[in-house]
Amino acid sequence: MERYNKITNKNPREIVLLKGKPCAWGKCRFCDYIDDNSRDIDTINDLNYEILSRVTGELGVLEVINSGSCFELPKETLKMIKDIIIEKQIHRLFFEAHWMYRKHLQKMREYMGIPITFKIGVETFDRSFREDYLNKHANFDSPEEVRKYFDSPCLMVGIKGQTKEMIDYDIQMLKMHFELGTVNVFTNNSTDVKRDPELVDWFMNKYAYLLEDPSVEVLYEKTDFGVGD
User: Fold this and answer.
1) Is residue 117 part of a domain?
2) Is there a contact between 1 and 33 (Cβ–Cβ < 8 Å)?
3) How far apart are CA 31 and CA 29, in angstroms?
4) Full-model pTM
5) First to last CA, the chain
6) Which of 109, 101, 34, 87 is nearest to 65 (CA)?
7) Which among 141, 138, 158 has a CA at the least distance from the CA of 25?
8) What is the CATH number of the domain that holds 18?
9) pLDDT per position in the chain (229 positions), as tens?
10) 67-96: string of b/e by CB count within 10 Å (b at 16+)?
């Protein structure tokens, strides 16, 4: 599994895929990514030290992802990240967190000491589809509510049962309320959630212009950030 990469097109940054403790929610219907975790803190920290040692700081921006939220990284790993920020003169950090951690984001910002762009896996702003089908456990009612806490939503498109109207609304809300966002085109995995090829083709045709939009990153494959497998 590749765990380090440099993104040089939109929002240039280094990106690392670290290992964390098990996802605190871990019940999203579409997700089998959460298997990349451990309860052995020493093993986690040893691996993360090796990955973080590859960070050069040449772009001044670092994104840290793991199979869950940044709050599930061990405190020793968080200290490593803080040390690298200072040593490599990183001036901006990207983290991701679940909705349940929304009231803890400021503490993390204060701990790291630099601006943090917090991503959140929204998947869709359609509450019924998000909660009743995807089982996201993120019970917000509106994009405005998300924006009070988070900077950059991650949307998911191309799922059977999703509609064009849902996707239209999601993209509209992304562009209206957020400066940055990510759109993940769903890829079949080991779960029972399935990709809708016709919906994917429609999306890639109608929203092809997003590929050139500097504020939106479209991930057609889950490894498009150059990490994972």
Assistant:
1) yes
2) no
3) 6
4) 0.94
5) 5
6) 34
7) 138
8) 3.20.20.70
9) 899 999 998 999 999 999 999 999 989 999 887 678 999 999 999 999 999 999 999 999 999 999 899 999 999 999 999 999 999 999 999 999 999 999 999 999 999 999 999 999 999 999 999 999 999 999 999 999 999 999 999 999 999 999 999 999 999 999 999 999 999 999 999 999 999 999 999 999 999 999 999 999 999 975 556 666 5
10) bbbbbbbbeebbebbbebbeebebebbbbb
* C-alpha 63 chain-centroid distance: 10
Residue 72 belongs to domain spanning:
4-219
Sequence-ordered list of residues with C-beta below 8 angstroms from that of 83, at least 6 positions apart, any chain? none
**Residue 200 domain-assigned?**
yes
Walk across the sheet containing 4-7 and list its strands. 4-7, 13-17, 61-65, 92-96, 116-123, 152-157, 181-185, 216-219
Q: Which amino acid is at 179?
A: E
